[in-house]
Structure formats: structure tokens, C-alpha cells
Amino acid sequence: MAHWLYKSEADVFSWDDLVKAGKAGTEWTGVRNYTARNHMRAMKKGDRGLYYHSGGEKAVVGIVEVVKEAHPDSTDDSGQWDCVDIRAVEKLPEPVTLAAVKADKALAEMALVRFSRLSVQPVTDAEWTAVCRMGGL
Predict the structure, then answer these.
(1) Which of 133, 136, 132 is nearest to 51 (CA)?
(2) 9-39 in b/e burial notation, b at 16+ Cβ within 10 A?
């Protein structure tokens, strides 16, 4: 199983919005970056991810799961963009801030630190374990 990180501004689509989508989840639409799109094309059903609130909060707040593999993004008329469907799995007991990630030398190479603008990012197994531990899981 691979691990990923999904970024969204809390005032656009928050963790609570994802929870409201229920077990069926929702499409992760609107991604218009080739690298992020290619990451979604590599995802498999059951892959887990970190849900990150960008903007003011800047923190990992929950764990998500891919419930539907890459398919055409319903918000794209050009046919070149794909998305996956994700669902909320578990809220982190303690949000993991970007500052905390940056302060951990073991996470210095994490995509969240190195490619801050990328909305969908891979997460290594070691990074996954570290962030989950920091978040109280």
C-alpha cells in the first residue's frame, strides 16, 4: 500500500466536509498540475493518505483512503485531468503542523517541505509512520 498527502484549504473543502461525504467519499477534483495528476493515476484502491489543511492552519488533520482509482475529473471539460475518490478514515488526535514537520530532521526530505505548492504528494513509509506518531496514532 502506498501513502499520499492531499492538500486543501479548510475554507474550500475541510476535513469536516470530507467526513460529511460519508463512507462513499467524494471525488478529489480540480487538480490542474501534471505531477499531482500523475500521482493520482498511480494510486490504488485502499491506499491511505494524510489530509492537510493549507492556508491559515497548515496542519495534517486526518487520515483518508482511496475508494475509487483514477478516472476522468468531472469538473474538467478538456478530458486531460483525472481524479480519485477518497473518504475520511480517522481524525488525528493532535494536528501535525507544518512547523512541527519542518522541525523534525527525519522529515526534511518530505515532499510537503520540499514541494510546498503540490496539492497531491507521495509520502514514504517512514514519513507516514512519523507523522501518524506525531499526530497521536
Answers:
(1) 132
(2) ebeebbbeebeebeeebbbbbebeeeebbeb
The pTM for the full model equals 0.96
d(CA 101, CA 7): 15
Give the SS3 label for residue 100: helix
What's the Rg (C-alpha) of the chain?
14
Note the pLDDT tens digit of each residue in 1-47.
899 999 999 999 999 999 999 999 999 999 999 999 999 999 999 99
**Fold designation for 3-134:** ph1033 like fold (3.10.590)
Cα 72 to Cα 40: distance, rounded to the nearest angstrom: 11
Q: Which are the contacts of 54, defined by CB distance < 8 A and separation ≥ 6?
A: 7, 8, 9
Domain boundaries, the chain: 3-134
